# Entry
Amino acid sequence: MSTLKETINDATKAAMKARDKARVAVLRMVNADIKRVEVDERRELSDQDVLGILNKMVKQRKDALNQFREAGRDDLAAQESFEIDTIQQFLPEQLDDDALAALVRQCIADVGAAGMQDMGKVMGVLKQSAGGQIDMGKASSLVKAQLASAS
# Structure
C-alpha cells in the first residue's frame, strides 16, 4: 500500500474518532476515488498515482468553486472551498510564482524549445520534474508567455 494512501486512511480514522462529519465525508470521497481507479485498472496505486488523483480532484473543485461564485451560490462555494482545503493537506507544498517561473525557464532551456510548437515537450518535462508541486494551469500560461516572446 502506498504511504500516501495509508496516510489518507489514517486521517479518515482520526476524523471518525473526532466525529468530524464534514472531514470524514471528504476523506471518504477521496478514498472512493482512489479505490475506483484501483478497481478500474486492476492494480495497486503508487504515491504518484494517488497524487495525480488528488490534483485532479482539486482542479475539479476549483472549477466548480468558480462556477458557484459566479452564480452567487456562496453555500456551495464554501463547501467546495472546504473540500479543496481538506484535499490539499495531502499534496506537497506548491512552488511559489518565482520558483515556478525559474523552473519553466530551465525546462525551456533543457528542451531547447524555439516556439509554440515545442510547448508539449516543455509541459511533459515540467510535469515530470516537479511532480505534484506545481499548478499545471499556471505553468501552462507561463510556458505560453515565454515561448510566445521567444518566437
Remarks:
- The domain at 3-88 is CATH 1.10.1510.10 (Hypothetical Protein Yqey; Chain: A; domain1).
- The CA atoms of residues 122 and 128 lie 10 Å apart.
- The mean pLDDT is 90.
- The chain is about 75% helix and 0% strand.
